[in-house]
Amino acid sequence: MTKTLHIIGGGMAGSEAAWQAANLGIDVVIHEMRPKVKTFAHRTGDLGEMVCSNSFRSDDDEQNAVGLLHWEMRAADGLIMAMADRHRLPAGGALAVDRDPFAQSVTQNLMDHPKITVQHDEITELPAGGHWIIATGPLTSEGLGQAIAQETGRDALAFFDAIAPIVYYDSIDMSKAWMQSRYDKGETEAERTAYLNCPMDRDQYEAFIDALLAADKTEFHEGETANYFDGCLPIEVMAERGRETLRHGPMKPVGLTNPHQPDIKAHAVVQLRRDNALGTLYNIVGFQTKMKYGAQSSVFKMIPGLENASFARLGGIHRNTFLNSPTLLDDQMRLRSRPHIRFAGQITGVEGYVESAAMGLLAGRLAAAEIMGQPLPPVPQDSAMGALIHHITGGAEAKTFQPMNVNFGLFRPVEGLKGGRRGRVHRYKAYTDRAKAAWTDWLATQNMSCAS
């Protein structure tokens, strides 16, 4: 049997899987259909292209599960984290990146690796043999999607994912907006001023909500339902849940002081985050939307400071496909009916760039170990990686399975620690300390196997 690992898809998961396997000595072929076959969401043929936000979210590895996942990926010499660190932008306590140079660097590193070959071709059938990882993400092509559905004997689940708009900085009225991270969070001045803020008073907020609710929305095709993932809800869907929902979500006014009117507390605040190193583009944080383009332009220009905004990209919505992984995948991420095929990334039912890349990292290492004839022990459940893979491959309830971000709710409790909000600082620190030790030990197991 061939010792080459084939990976379908060159997004976050596929890129990381290839990097990990190749660094363990395995020959890898990445099959990426772009740019020959385009998707509506991608702009380039680069590997690791960021489609939605440019943020990898919190980088706090002691009090945040996402930051812990960053730590574990860095400990495993992950490509995605290395390139994110190289192209980091100020974003308070978050890890945001300059998306185009980031993807270009991911692509160049993979193309330069002597063990990696990139083929721009579309795979439309499940392979009959060999070693494969399918990491096609939420935009799996129709042909391959049908092949997967036929093999699993059931339709893939689906929800709808929405994309936030991006604004040109020079079109923003800075006599109304200002730069500040919430609670001035960050160690440098750039971090403490990483977000651009647009304030609203009560009347402006109420008018904005009215416009959101009345705006023309994207219609769904027959048989489709708006089964959204809660972590990426369109703003108009949030508004439909209650007029105050946005004020307690992406438009919360806390931790901010308007230098133009320091004595007046805003009723709501719209935040924008820098989207490139030049600082010429800003994305509207949490403003994923399914409004039609014409409606978006008029509604978003109601935001103080954005009255004359020019948009580099308006929001959008797309169908997002994923497997019912608890019933279909084993704890090594293999398809139970065809164990020579692994799945990784968003198609497995994780949500977010970081989680997708993390599942790619695991799939690449697990596949490489199997090819070398040195299968690895299960990923430790007490690590962030382990908590996530355990959830998607068996810990979740199959009947209600939905995409999941990493969070401390997936971790096993630490005995003797106080529950509730008051005890969470010590509890989260205990989770992260335990996870780092478990992950380090697991990595050492593979390193010893390779050395022998």
UniProtKB/TrEMBL annotation:
Domain of life: Bacteria
Protein residues bound to FAD: 9-14
Alphabetic keyword roster: Cytoplasm, FAD, Flavoprotein, Methyltransferase, NAD, NADP, Transferase, tRNA processing
Entry GO CC: cytosol
Catalytic activity: uridine(54) in tRNA + (6R)-5,10-methylene-5,6,7,8-tetrahydrofolate + NADPH + H(+) = 5-methyluridine(54) in tRNA + (6S)-5,6,7,8-tetrahydrofolate + NADP(+); uridine(54) in tRNA + (6R)-5,10-methylene-5,6,7,8-tetrahydrofolate + NADH + H(+) = 5-methyluridine(54) in tRNA + (6S)-5,6,7,8-tetrahydrofolate + NAD(+)
Principal location class: cytoplasm
Localization of this protein: Cytoplasm
Keyword Cytoplasm: yes
MnmG N-terminal domain segment(s): 5-374
GO MF term list: flavin adenine dinucleotide binding; tRNA (uracil(54)-C5)-methyltransferase activity, 5,10-methylenetetrahydrofolate-dependent
InterPro entries for this protein: FAD/NAD-bd_sf, MnmG-rel, MnmG_N, TrmFO
A Gene Ontology BP annotation from the UniProt entry: tRNA wobble uridine modification
Entry's EC annotation: 2.1.1.74
Cofactor(s) named in the record: FAD
Main function: Catalyzes the folate-dependent formation of 5-methyl-uridine at position 54 (M-5-U54) in all tRNAs.
Family membership: Belongs to the MnmG family. TrmFO subfamily.
The protein's name: Methylenetetrahydrofolate--tRNA-(uracil-5-)-methyltransferase TrmFO
Organism in which the protein naturally occurs: Roseovarius tolerans
Native organism taxonomy: Bacteria, Pseudomonadati, Pseudomonadota, Alphaproteobacteria, Rhodobacterales
Recorded name of the encoding gene: trmFO
